[in-house]
Design brief:
two-stranded antiparallel sheet; alpha/beta
Length: 216
């Protein structure tokens, strides 16, 4: 089930809203001394609960960003099951955000939205670096996208526009990449490595905290 909590951002993490303030602004100096509170909603990753609880929650117009955590230590395994499942879930999440922007199925959201793909467990020697995680996910999402598009075209021939709305990134011939989501739908996607546990965990968490701070 969904779990929500109010979390605090360390004072040392810069906020995105600070760039609009003067360096001499007293409130900016205060902000650098105090923690910032933000709300985090944890959604289940189990396959049976994704649509009902996780993806349906993305319709909330108050959401500023989405953190999608992946285990970077198993994406390079000879067993591609985890990679396929991860890419399929990420595909569905991005499609839900795309439809949130275009107004398909829910009220249209005009605001931009950011997605952080948190490549976790970078402290393990089997972990793929963030750049490789990005490449693997883009390639696998293209496979999912192609398979889903073929399924749509065989179900009905109601028009290309309808298919485009149901296809991640639209119905163009270009292979899927994260950049097209920003250019076409104002969905900015970043892949950042880190580690919740283990050696070097603080550095990884710091990068994720900075991403969160940029949205506040």
């Amino acid at each position: 089930s969904l779990a929500a909590a109010n979390l605090s951002l360390p004072p040392s993490v810069p906020l995105g809203s600070n760039k609009y303030r003067s360096k001499n602004d007293a409130s900016l100096q205060d902000a650098e001394k105090n923690t910032t509170i933000y709300r985090m909603i944890d959604t289940p990753g189990h396959g049976k609960l994704r649509l009902e609880q996780a993806l349906s929650s993305l319709a909330d117009p108050a959401i500023r960003g989405v953190i999608f955590v992946v285990d970077s230590s198993v994406l390079d395994s000879s067993d591609t099951t985890v990679l396929r499942d991860t890419a399929s879930y990420l595909h569905d999440l991005l499609l839900a955000l795309q439809q949130r922007i275009t107004g398909q199925g829910t009220s249209k959201a005009k605001s931009d939205i950011s997605v952080l793909i948190a490549a976790n467990k970078q402290d393990l020697f089997t972990a793929l670096p963030a750049g490789a995680v990005k490449d693997r996910l883009q390639t696998e999402i293209e496979r999912v996208r192609s398979s889903r598009s073929k399924g749509l075209s065989t179900v009905g021939q109601e028009g290309a526009d309808d298919d485009d709305d149901q296809t991640l990134g639209g119905g163009g011939e270009e292979k899927f990449n994260f950049k097209m989501m920003e250019e076409e739908y104002r969905i900015n996607i970043e892949v950042v490595g880190g580690a919740v546990k283990g050696e070097g965990a603080g550095k990884g968490v710091r990068k994720w905290e900075e991403w969160i701070g940029s949205l506040l």
